[in-house]
């Protein structure tokens, strides 16, 4: 018993004429009649009453017809599901992200992805950049939003947001009252940074900036995420270096300033394992490339 036998039966049952059914199926009548006969023999009951001028369904045939239609519909649905899954329209996607992405481009990406692919199940995990790299290599997440650079040759990275970093200062700090902050103003100032393990790009750029003008910044505290930096700044521990999007935290005890003539960059990248064949990942990467924006 093959799927085509159900299609042959449905055609004859709907046409009640072997000639018209054969034409509909784009075949000749004798092979169709033979296939229907073999189908009835395999089922073990007659599905049609037929003579030279008339064809009608038996009681068994009448009851079998809606079941046969349901089988074909289920097969078509299964094929459609498989094809849509292959296109990334169904399935599961596990996403890692650094905390700063929450106040930046991540909501926009997730909102647009869910709108376009509502049948893909999304799991979100907040992870530091090193933890995301480990999770990508271990295939525990499909894609990450992290701070570059990433040294692993197994991972592809794509910059998706190039913004600026800012100084975060207690609102009552003397520098907070200045209209312009120059790099010379920052000598002997205690700084709080996200640790190099977590955000190597910003950490190295910050040190390089001060080395270029002949002094080394005083880093008194390192943190695992920039939300912690902002909290320590509000406690008066020092001045922080955070992405400009940190202003969205709405901490009333902290203000944000740029260093005049010395902009610091804050880059967010998309990362995924090169060998990952998840179709949903392919769609996510494609969508993210389309909506990425530069400040």
TrEMBL record:
<dbReference type="InterPro" id="IPR005119">
    <property type="entry name" value="LysR_subst-bd"/>
</dbReference>
<comment type="similarity">
    <text>Belongs to the LysR transcriptional regulatory family.</text>
</comment>
<keyword id="KW-0804">Transcription</keyword>
<dbReference type="GO" id="GO:0003677">
    <property type="term" value="F:DNA binding"/>
</dbReference>
<protein>
    <submittedName>
        <fullName>LysR family transcriptional regulator</fullName>
    </submittedName>
</protein>
<keyword id="KW-0805">Transcription regulation</keyword>
<dbReference type="Pfam" id="PF03466">
    <property type="entry name" value="LysR_substrate"/>
</dbReference>
<keyword id="KW-0238">DNA-binding</keyword>
<dbReference type="InterPro" id="IPR000847">
    <property type="entry name" value="LysR_HTH_N"/>
</dbReference>
<dbReference type="GO" id="GO:0003700">
    <property type="term" value="F:DNA-binding transcription factor activity"/>
</dbReference>
<dbReference type="InterPro" id="IPR036388">
    <property type="entry name" value="WH-like_DNA-bd_sf"/>
</dbReference>
<dbReference type="Pfam" id="PF00126">
    <property type="entry name" value="HTH_1"/>
</dbReference>
<feature type="domain" description="HTH lysR-type">
    <location>
        <begin position="1"/>
        <end position="58"/>
    </location>
</feature>
<dbReference type="InterPro" id="IPR054793">
    <property type="entry name" value="AlsR"/>
</dbReference>
<dbReference type="GO" id="GO:0032993">
    <property type="term" value="C:protein-DNA complex"/>
</dbReference>
<dbReference type="InterPro" id="IPR036390">
    <property type="entry name" value="WH_DNA-bd_sf"/>
</dbReference>
């Amino acid at each position: 018993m093959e799927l085509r036998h159900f299609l042959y039966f449905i055609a004859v049952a709907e046409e009640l004429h072997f000639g018209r059914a054969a034409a509909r199926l784009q075949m000749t009548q004798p092979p169709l009649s033979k296939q229907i006969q073999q189908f009835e023999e395999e089922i073990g009951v007659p599905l049609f009453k037929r003579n030279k001028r008339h064809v009608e369904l038996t009681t068994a045939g009448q009851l079998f017809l809606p079941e046969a239609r349901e089988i074909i519909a289920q097969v078509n649905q299964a094929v459609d599901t498989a094809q849509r899954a292959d296109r990334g329209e169904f399935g599961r996607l596990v996403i890692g992200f650094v905390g700063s992405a929450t106040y930046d481009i991540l909501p926009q990406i997730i909102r647009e992805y869910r709108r376009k692919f509502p049948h893909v199940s999304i799991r979100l995990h907040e992870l530091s950049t090193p933890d995301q790299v480990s999770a990508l290599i271990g295939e525990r997440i499909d894609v990450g939003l992290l701070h570059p650079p990433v040294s692993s040759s197994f991972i592809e990275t794509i910059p998706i947001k190039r913004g600026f970093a800012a100084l975060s200062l207690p609102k009552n700090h003397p520098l907070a009252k200045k209209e312009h902050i120059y790099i010379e103003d920052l000598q002997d100032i205690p700084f709080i940074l996200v640790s190099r393990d977590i955000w190597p790009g910003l950490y190295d750029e910050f040190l390089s900036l001060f080395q270029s003008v002949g002094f080394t910044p005083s880093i008194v505290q390192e943190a695992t995420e920039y939300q912690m930096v902002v909290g320590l700044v509000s406690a008066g521990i020092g001045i922080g270096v955070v992405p400009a999007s940190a202003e969205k935290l709405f901490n009333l005890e902290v203000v944000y300033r740029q260093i005049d003539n010395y902009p610091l960059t804050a880059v967010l990248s998309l990362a995924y394992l090169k060998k990952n064949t998840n179709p949903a990942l392919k769609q996510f990467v494609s969508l993210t490339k389309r909506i990425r924006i530069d400040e």
